[in-house]
Amino acid sequence: MVGGKTCAACNVCIVNGTDLAMYDNRYHAYKDGSYPMPNDDSELDRLDLTHQMLRILMRDKLYFAPISTDKPIKVLDIGTGTGIWAIELGDELPLAEIVGIDLSPTQSSWVPPNVKFEVDDCEEPWTFQQPFDFIHSRYMAAAIKDWPKLARQCFEHTTPGGYCEFQDFDLQYYSEDGSMTPEAPITDWVNTLLKASRDFGNDPHPGSKLGGWLEDAGFVDVRAEKFLVPIGPWAKDKHLKTLGSWNLVQIEDGVEGFSIRLYTQFLGWKAEEVQVLLTKVRKDLRNPRIHMMYQFWVAYGRKPGSPKHEETTETEPTAVPSSETA
Fold first, then answer.
1. How many alpha carbons fall within 13 Å on the CB side of residue 20?
2. Where are the alpha helices (H) located in the chain, listed in sequence order?
3. CB within 10 Å: which end of the chain, N or C, has fewer?
4. Helix, strand, coil share (%) of the chain residues, nearest 5
5. Nearest Cα to 155, choosing from 220, 208, 71?
6. How large is the C-alpha radius of gyration of the chain?
7. How far apart are alpha carbons 168 and 298 in whole angstroms?
8. How many other C-beta atoms can be found within 10 angstroms of the C-beta atom of residue 137?
9. In degrees rounded to 5, what are phi and psi of residue 138?
10. What is the H or E stretch that residue 127 is in?
11. Cβ contacts of residue 195 below 8 Å, gap of 6+?
């Protein structure tokens, strides 16, 4: 391959110093293996789509923590991905100074002047010289090996009176009405995928534990909210129907990226076998009689000490109503 090195036996090309090409997907080369998802253009588009889905879920909010919005603050965005959350926060809070970190340098070069990005591993010891008034992390399910350590590092690098907010999934699919049966291909797929992630050393179910990790790290006034995220437009509730439609699109866009590396490298499947399975999975995803969902959680806490920012009803979390069977 021109400009890179090819390993035919493992179907991997070293594209440049930061990326690997594998199974027609591109992955980060920095700390290769610490994050199993690709970082190619299709995956970046899916991440931006997921961001819009989460804005719908959170009623167009980027965060729930009652941070100061009328004076300069320092913000850290962990696992910034495409950088879209940091960029939108930079537009929303022009007085804030925002740093986004990620394993891959895939962020846009067109950013507000108060936003910058760095390639870094949040699970390594942090070397920031100044603490942050607000630390944010989102969609790190199946990407973090030691959540309690991450929470402790967040606590150590938060200013007294500052906030840390984790927003994340419990990626276990389920149905409340039994329409997702044990023998369905989608059930076997997601259970196998989640087991592979756990065997890989990464927790795919951090959502319900986020608040506890923040409390154990030393944060106080911790609040945690659970949201139901339907897969597909089957819910009667208008908000949930819209949310489910967006969710179906982003899952279908990502189903191969979710699967191919874990199934081939860690479970020993052939790529062709994975594609056969994914055809059945996509059929189940589109089946309106299967009322699947999973959970999304938002948890935030304050570091003791002064200053303590005033809480406002403007940032109070609003739980999404329970899903309804169509």
1. 19
2. 41-57, 84-92, 147-156, 185-200, 210-217, 238-261, 271-285
3. N
4. 35, 25, 45
5. 220
6. 20
7. 7
8. 24
9. -145, 140
10. none
11. none
In this prediction the pTM is: 0.85
Mean pLDDT of 119-133: 96
Q: Which residues of 77-102 are buried (b: 16+ CB within 10 A; e: fewer)?
A: bbbbbbbbbbbebbeebeebbbbbbb
Dist. CA 31–CA 34, nearest whole Å? 6
Q: Are 52 and 46 in contact (CB under 8 A)?
A: no
188-246: pLDDT as tens digits: 999 999 998 898 889 999 999 999 999 999 999 999 999 999 999 999 999 999 999 99
Q: In sequence order, what are the beta bridge partners of 12?
A: 7, 22
Q: For residues 216 and 132, give the distance between their C-alpha atoms in angstroms, rounded to a whole number.
A: 19
Other beta carbons within 10 angstroms of residue 254's beta carbon come to 19
C-alpha to C-alpha distance for 9 and 22, rounded to whole angstroms: 11
Selection from 148, 123, 152, 151 nearest residue 33 by Cα: 123
Q: Is the peptide bond before 307 cis (omega within 30 degrees of 0)?
A: yes
Query: CA distances (Å), 113 to each of 63, 93, 99, 110, 226, in order?
Result: 21, 11, 11, 9, 34
- What is the reported pLDDT for 319? 45
Extract the tokens encoding 164.
């840390």
What is the spatial distance between Cα 317 and Cα 283, in angstroms, rounded to a whole number? Answer: 35
At 155 the three-state DSSP class reads helix
Give yes or no for residue 311 having a pLDDT over 90. Answer: no
H or E, element range at 167 = strand 158-174
